[in-house]
Amino acid sequence: MHAKLNRLLKMKLTHFCLLISTLLPSILMAGEHDGLEISLIAESKTITPGKPVTLGVHLKHKPGFHTYWKSPGIVGMPTQLEWKLPDGFSVSEIQWPYPEKSFMAEYSCHGYERDVTLLVTLNPPKTISTDSISVEAFASWMCCAKECFPGTETLKLPLQVSDTPVASPVHLKLIEQARQQIPKANPLWKASVLSKIGAPQIKVLIRPPRNTKPKNIYLFSEDGQISSDKKQLITYQEDGSIIVTVPRSELDDAKSTNLPLILKADNQYVSICPVYKNLHSQ
């Protein structure tokens, strides 16, 4: 899925550049940190050899501003991190908290208006020969309101090496909040794709848990098959199931065999990944 996201992002970048050219001079190349405060934090003040530790890039938005989720939709670019680590260390992919619907000018998008922490797992080697280490992340982002402000910064985090982890209470609280916002699969929610692979209309059948009747349903596409500018038609069935119908994104290559989604149902965010109907089925 990551290769497909990278391909879609390249296509979206071209589209995005054409789009923002129509909004100039509202889109400005402004000074750093316009609309946003960004910092690199850790759940622990120390690093213990062989024991993973959770890091977070905390995004604090000024009122009216937003940054973008990993799959922003028709406009926007996701926050990206390039890591510089000591020898023997590795870091995971970003774990993204659930997104929100937002707008860049009149264009709908998927991102974050609330303050949010993007999580990664730092994996240290079993042996660390120094008394301290430094972790660096080159962060790049797009922060928008009525105007858009691209930004970059090299974030640095020193950590003392210790046999015993020492918690950082303030940062741990932010990281725990973010963990609670990571969408997870829930076996009580059932989903299937009624469309065939590559169909111009994507139709998803959702079966909520028994005795529940969610009123507000929305699908966030994790890989861009559904874009943020497409209206989602919600149809409630007599048996309690829900059908969501939406046109396929014009940027999608129409080759995926599954449909990774974040399902928003009222105040719940559930990770689902139904498989497309077989090409030869009726």
Notes on the structure:
By secondary structure, this protein is mainly beta. The protein has a four-stranded antiparallel beta sheet. It has a four-stranded mixed beta sheet with strand order 2-11-10-5, with no helix packed on it. It has a four-stranded antiparallel beta sheet with strand order 12-13-16-15, with no helix packed on it. Helix content is 11%, strand content 39%. The longest helix is centred in the N-terminal third of the chain and has 20 residues, at 2-21. A hairpin with a 2-residue loop joins strand 17 (261-265) and strand 18. It has two domains: 27-180, Immunoglobulin-like, CATH 2.60.40; 190-272, Immunoglobulin-like, CATH 2.60.40. Residues 1-30 form the signal peptide. This is Thiol-disulfide interchange protein, contains DsbC and DsbD domains.
Summary?
This protein is mainly beta and 282 residues long. Helix content is 11%, strand content 39%.
What's the helix and strand layout?
Layout: H1 2-21, E1 36-42, E2 46-47, E3 53-61, E4 67-68, E5 80-84, E6 90-91, E7 100-104, E8 107-112, E9 116-123, E10 132-144, E11 148-161, H2 169-180, E12 190-193, E13 201-207, E14 217-221, E15 233-236, E16 242-247, E17 261-265, E18 268-272
Parallel strand pairs: 2-11
Antiparallel strand pairs: 1-3, 3-9, 4-8, 5-10, 6-9, 7-8, 10-11, 12-13, 13-16, 14-17, 15-16, 17-18
Mean pLDDT: 89
Radius of gyration: 21 Å
The shape is globular
Strand order of the largest sheet: 1-3-9-6
CATH fold title of the largest domain: Immunoglobulin-like
Model regions low in confidence, pLDDT < 50 over at least 5 residues:
13-32
Total tally of structural domains: 2
Kindly report how far apart the N and C termini lie.
Answer: 27 Å
Helicity range: 10-25%
Which CATH C-level class of the largest domain is it? Mainly Beta
Gross CATH architecture of the largest domain? Sandwich
Number of helices: 2
